[in-house]
Amino acid sequence: MSGNGANRQDWPGRAALRPTAKATPGHSRVHNLSLVLSCLFHGGPMSRAELARATGLTRVTISDLVAGLSDQGLIVDLGTSPEPRVGKPASLIDINAAGHLIAVLDLSDTSQMRGALITLRGEVLRRAERPAVGATGAAVVHLASGLAQELIPAAKDARLLGVGVASPGVLTPDGTVVYAKDYQWENLPLAEQIASTTGAAVYAANDANLRALAEFTFAGASAQGLMEVSLTDGLGAGILLDGMLLAGPSNAAGEIGHIPAMAGGEPCTCGRTGCLETVLNRRVLGGEEASPGGENGGSVGSFTLSPATLERVGQSTAAVLGPIVSALNLSDLVFADPRGVATPEVISAIRQGLEERILPQIMADLDVRVSQLGADAALLGAGALVLAEQLGLT
After folding, report:
1. 226: β partners
2. What is the pTM assigned to this prediction?
3. What is the pLDDT of residue 55?
4. Parallel/antiparallel/unpaired status of strands 176-180 and 185-189
5. For 328-338, what is the mean pLDDT?
6. What is the CATH number of domain 100-212+377-391?
7. How distant, in Å, are the alpha carbons of 153, 281, 342, 379 from that of 339?
8. Does the pLDDT value for residue 332 go beyond 80?
9. What angle do CA 252, 258, 261 make, to 5 degrees?
10. Residues linked to residue 299 through DSSP beta bridges, in sequence order
């Protein structure tokens, strides 16, 4: 149930994210192995009989699959259940979350590169950071490889499942960065280069896509209609729809930052004016356009966003996101906010703007919120990518 990392083409954007039924005769054994792991991953410890009921597989098949997963060290026997029951006590098994670790990197902040070593269930065991201010080109790859090499030995006796990388820019399924402006990357085989220096299976994808994947894998979000908007150095989105992570023919689905949001407006790095990225960004939301004190605005640290700024942010954001929410009938609009600039007042202003543009029937089912994963969303998403690629888990 593993791959070489840098050469995979069947990433989560190409298939349904989570198996929910037993395999048909045309499917492989791998499907059922992933199904068993998924039940344990999301449901916790179970007996073999409970697994058979949950998966729809026969007890004989479950016993065979459990034996194979046990041989790989992917599940552990927890002994008999402490709960009283009639007859022979049930023996519980669980996924071996701490026996297989993942090294994860978040390259989305161009000033500070972050890394962590996590368990299969997303528990952070070790963290590491490296300054990246002004780094571009090969220097960034060198820093990322070094950070991974610092984390990998910390796995010690546990098996390293792989390295996950959350990167800005447009990436192909094999982890090649087609374009990332801030790092001056173009057609850079990022996953392959990090794999060559670490000797590990490496998977890389766009950071906004991975934050959306993290919401699904670790935060219990639905994959039926979710858009995660990342408020980082740039502005991008990851979209889960009908059980799929949308990629698009150019792998650029979710590039919303350079959609015009208002007439005129500030110049954007793309050469246009009034792009959403010029309105919904940390400079505006973080206080540089705000003033201390004030009334009826939204507080950001010791600053208060003026009502005019809040209205501009809300209306401009809704002008871009409203048509997307309506066209796709999304039910969740989640803002990943690692720097804490999306205050309740900002979210309220966006919600109000959406209410003015979206049919009440769609708006009634739309949840607009800030992600609870905080600054770790991209790191956890990178871990979720490795889980999906190596074990079929999401």
Report:
1. 240, 332
2. 0.88
3. 92
4. antiparallel
5. 94
6. 3.30.420.40
7. 30, 11, 8, 15
8. yes
9. 135
10. 304
Residue 83, pLDDT above cutoff 80 = no
Q: Where are the domains of the chain?
A: 12-95, 100-212+377-391, 221-371
- Residue 4, pLDDT score: 46
CB-based contact 286:339 (threshold 8 Å): yes
| CATH architecture designation of domain 12-95 | Orthogonal Bundle (1.10)
pLDDT for 351 equals 97
Q: What does the H/E/C string look like for 353-391?
A: HHHCCCCHHHHCCCEEEECCCHHHHHHHHHHHHHHHHHH
The residue to which tokens 């650029």 are assigned: 252
The single-letter code of the amino acid at 183 is Y
pLDDT of 148 higher than 90: yes
pLDDT, tens only, 34-64: 899 999 999 999 999 999 999 999 999 999 9
pLDDT over 90 (residue 190): yes
221-371: CATH architecture: 2-Layer Sandwich (3.30)
Contacts of 95 (CB under 8 A, 6+ apart): 37, 40, 41, 74, 75, 76, 120, 121
β-pair type (75-80, 332-336): unpaired
